[in-house]
Amino acid sequence: MAKFRIPILIAMISGCAMVIREFIPHKPFDILNTTFQQWYMIIACFAILLGVGSLLSVHGEKIRRRRAGWWYSIVLIAGFVTMVFFGMVGGISERGEGFIGQGFNWMFEYMYNALQSTMFSILAFFVASAAYRAFRARTPEATLLLLAAFVVMLGRVTAGEYIYDKLPIITEWIMDYPNTAGQRAVMIGIGLGIVSTSLRIILGIEKSYLGRE
């Protein structure tokens, strides 16, 4: 169908153009990166509008039908409207005057950042629980992971140096060599996955972004 062929054609042309740009950094390919970034910002603006509409629609329907947790939807919409109001009327610059001028920055600094810190603090307990389950020495690999984690955590605190003065050096060696090697292996795998997915999109094999398999 034409409505699927046009997006696929656009993706193919854009992908091929960006690949050619990396190998031929001359006109007209050298300006493609800047041009595509400008187009991306324009599309992102429309995407934000769609996201706002979807947010208000979903949570408005939840409030109207009194579904479970609808009070949270009221708080979300009220916070969203308040931030938009102060951002549009008073601006987001720190040079604003009065409560209206400083309202956006005040709420961002003392409400949003505080809530964000609280959320990450709560997540720390989930991380500790997941680490406890993952570090059970049931297999040789899990035992090695447990020992490495124990050495690294102990080497990062002052008490570790008092226990064994070489422990910080061992910790740095683990972080610089085995850990870096593992991270690079993961990044190589991610890179290969990106290349394969990009080729599938450019060749028109991958169509999931169109909303169908």
TrEMBL record:
It comes from the Bacteria. PROSITE patterns: PROKAR_LIPOPROTEIN (PS51257). Keywords: Membrane, Transmembrane, Transmembrane helix. Signal peptide: none annotated. The chain crosses the membrane at residues 7-24, 39-58, 70-90, 110-132, 144-164, 184-203. This is Prolipoprotein diacylglyceryl transferase. It comes from candidate division CSSED10-310 bacterium.
